[in-house]
Design goal:
Layout (H helix, E strand, L loop, with lengths): L11 E2 L4 E2 L5 H7 L5 E3 L11 H4 L3 E3 L15 E3 L1 H8 L8 H7 L21
């Protein structure tokens, strides 16, 4: 049987107010050869998001929920395992995140939890 890749849990669900703990999920995914892709649309900015501590490989969100920004922006985080998976595809992925990887990388953050330095060279 082919292991799932990725495994996409929700961090939070806005209509019910349910928040799902992600502690230990990353280790479980790694043990089974899967990536941990987190849907944080209804949670990012409202509850802590500990990507490194939870072993999150990729995450996406939306601007219109807890971030309280106009709709249309979609924050995306890709860790090293997710980038390696995308770069290793037989058929090249398309779209915004994939295009950034193909052109050479993402803009670096000065430290965890900060926004990228928009004047920096892509890594």
């Amino acid at each position: 049987m082919t292991p799932p890749s990725p495994s996409p849990p929700l961090q939070g669900e806005s209509s019910t107010g349910v928040r799902q703990s992600l502690e230990g999920v990353g280790a479980l995914c790694r043990a089974h050869g899967a990536l941990l892709l987190v849907d944080s649309v209804a949670a990012l900015g409202g509850v802590p998001f500990m990507a490194d501590a939870w072993g999150v490989d990729a995450a996406y969100s939306g601007s219109q929920k807890c971030l309280s920004a106009p709709p249309g922006a979609a924050p995306l985080m890709l860790g090293p395992r997710a980038v390696a998976k995308l770069r290793g595809r037989k058929t090249k992925a398309s779209g915004g995140g994939a295009a950034a990887i193909r052109r050479g990388g993402m803009l670096p953050c000065k430290e965890p939890g900060t926004l990228p330095d928009m004047n920096a060279e892509p890594q």
